[in-house]
UniProtKB/TrEMBL annotation:
The gene is NSMCE2. GO terms for biological process: double-strand break repair via homologous recombination; protein sumoylation. This is E3 SUMO-protein ligase NSE2. One of its GO terms (molecular function) is zinc ion binding. Pathway: Protein modification; protein sumoylation. It comes from Oncorhynchus tshawytscha. It is found in: Nucleus. GO terms for cellular component: nucleus; Smc5-Smc6 complex. Keywords: Metal-binding, Nucleus, Transferase, Ubl conjugation pathway, Zinc, Zinc-finger. Residues 54-138 form the SP-RING-type domain. InterPro entries: Nse2(Mms21) (IPR026846), Znf_MIZ (IPR004181), Znf_RING/FYVE/PHD (IPR013083). Belongs to the NSE2 family. Gene3D superfamilies: Zinc/RING finger domain, C3HC4 (zinc finger).
Length: 138
């Protein structure tokens, strides 16, 4: 197998991973909206939905089981997911780093070892509600 074929296959896999992450984010947002607007008569159904979402999210993204922020090395309080590389950071830590690097007029590289994302931006970060719920349930 040629190097270009390997590169092409890896690019396709990265695209699939991004698409799966986007789909999970959409499903999560819809489910959270339903949970917030539903009445108490649906509590049992919503509880089952939440459990299914958590199980699915863990199954799809096994690497996200780590709740330690790569910047602070402590458990995250408000986990932010990077839409580009799918890594997580605590909100205060990553926002502080972004601001510090902007003041230096430099780009912020993802702090996860081996990650190729060389430009972490605030616009690429979203609050990961599923991970936050997982952390709170521990």
């Amino acid at each position: 197998m040629s190097l270009s074929a390997v590169h092409s296959t890896l690019s396709s896999l990265k695209t699939c991973q991004t698409d799966i992450g986007t789909g999970m984010d959409i499903v999560t947002d819809v489910a959270l909206d339903v949970a917030e607007t539903a009445g108490t008569e649906n509590d049992a159904v919503l509880k089952k939905l939440e459990v299914m979402m958590l199980e699915c999210d863990v199954a799809v993204t096994q690497s996200e089981v780590n709740f330690t922020c790569p910047l602070t090395q402590v458990e995250m309080v408000d986990p932010m997911k990077n839409k580009k590389c799918n890594h997580h950071y605590d909100r205060d830590a990553i926002m502080g780093m972004i601001k510090a690097r902007q003041n230096q007029k430099k780009k912020l590289r993802c702090p996860v070892v081996g990650c190729g994302n060389t430009d972490v931006k605030q616009g690429d970060l979203i609050l990961d509600q599923i991970m936050k719920r997982q952390i709170l349930k521990r």
